[in-house]
């Protein structure tokens, strides 16, 4: 049975400029795509932090690089991500998708060198039992730093390689990775293919925006598709919307 790893960008499922605001129409379109993928095979969903995680993380000075030992701050970030996760799970349940949460704060950790340890037992067993695991960017224990932020993009890379996914898609609010003229770059095989145009996010963001996303996906060593909400249908149909990141490792 085919296995797809699909990221729902925080910019899709939330209004990234309004604190803790779900984008109902973006979420609805994304969940319809997940429902279709779940009908056809196995799917693992990862969603980003959007205006839930990033705003609270920024308030506490926590990012993928900067950590904290402030328990109240860690809990504030994780609680916000669980609220967004509940909204995604509820929308999936309304469409009859058997979705269950996997919270990275309680499932994984970062080693001192920053490498991510994400045991897959919960995710793999959920898949084997016919469930749809839903993970999300989160705050995560980090040896030597207390806790830092793990991006949904990091989780996508870890899951796709650990589960040997057949297809990887990342839905954002842009139609793909854009060049300096604003056109979609069809394929990226090296960071230099788009370096001039790659930047952070237009909204509050503590995990590096599109530049970090492309860098992480190039390390995956398998094709990953970056597309906008209008590309969800094509991705579900097995086509290649937006930009394909084709790294080698
Ligand atoms: N060359 C580029 N092409 C496309 N988007 C770019 C580029 N450079 C910077 N960006 C910015 O990156 C954003 C997408 O990255 P972002 O991390 O915000 O996406 P996301 O995964 O939906 O969000 P989240 O990280 O909350 O899950 C775009 O909204 C755009 O503002
Ligand atoms: C900021 C938090 C807590 C999540 C970051 O995940 P991302 O939005 O996928 O980068």
TrEMBL record:
Q: Where is this site: Transition state stabilizer?
A: 16
Origin superkingdom:
Archaea
Binding positions for ATP per the UniProt entry = 7-11, 209, 213
Name of the protein in its database record: Isopentenyl phosphate kinase
The biological processes this protein is annotated with in GO are: isoprenoid biosynthetic process
Q: Which InterPro entries match?
A: AceGlu_kinase-like_sf (IPR036393), Asp/Glu/Uridylate_kinase (IPR001048), Fosfomycin_R_FomA-type (IPR024192)
Q: Which residue ranges does the record assign to the Aspartate/glutamate/uridylate kinase domain? A: 3-219
Purpose:
Catalyzes the phosphorylation of isopentenyl phosphate (IP) to isopentenyl diphosphate (IPP). Functions in an alternate mevalonate (MVA) pathway leading to IPP, a key precursor for the biosynthesis of isoprenoid compounds such as archaeal membrane lipids.
Sorted alphabetically, the keyword list is: ATP-binding, Isoprene biosynthesis, Kinase, Nucleotide-binding, Transferase
One GO MF annotation is: kinase activity
Q: What is its EC number?
A: 2.7.4.26
Q: Which family does it belong to?
A: Belongs to the isopentenyl phosphate kinase family.
Q: Which reaction does it catalyse?
A: isopentenyl phosphate + ATP = isopentenyl diphosphate + ADP
Q: Which Pfam families match?
A: AA_kinase (PF00696)
Which species does the entry assign this protein to? Haloferax namakaokahaiae
The entry describes its oligomerization and partners as: Homodimer.
Detail which positions bind substrate.
Answer: 49-50, 54, 152
């Amino acid at each position: 049975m085919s296995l797809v790893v699909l990221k729902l960008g925080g910019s899709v499922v939330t209004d990234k400029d309004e604190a803790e605001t779900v984008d109902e129409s973006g979420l609805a379109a994304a969940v319809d795509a997940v429902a279709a993928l779940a009908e056809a095979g196995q799917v693992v969903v990862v969603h980003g932090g959007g205006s839930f995680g990033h705003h609270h993380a920024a308030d506490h000075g926590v990012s993928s690089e900067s950590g904290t030992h402030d328990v109240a701050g860690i809990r504030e970030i994780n609680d916000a991500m669980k609220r967004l996760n509940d909204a995604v799970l509820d929308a999936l349940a309304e469409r009859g998708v058997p979705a269950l949460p996997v919270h990275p704060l309680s499932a994984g950790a970062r080693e001192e060198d920053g490498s991510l340890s994400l045991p897959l037992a919960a995710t793999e067993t959920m898949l084997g039992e016919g469930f749809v695991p839903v993970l999300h960017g989160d705050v995560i224990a980090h040896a030597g730093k207390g806790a830092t932020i793990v991006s949904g993009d990091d989780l996508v890379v870890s899951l796709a390689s650990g589960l040997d996914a057949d297809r990887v898609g990342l839905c954002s609010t842009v139609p793909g990775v854009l060049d300096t003229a604003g056109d979609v770059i069809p394929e990226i095989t090296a960071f230099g293919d788009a370096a001039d145009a790659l930047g952070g996010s237009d909204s509050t963001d503590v995990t590096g925006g599109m530049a970090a996303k492309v860098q992480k996906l190039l390390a995956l060593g398998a094709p990953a598709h970056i597309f906008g909400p209008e590309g969800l249908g094509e991705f579900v149909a097995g086509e290649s919307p937006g930009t394909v990141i084709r790294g080698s490792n």
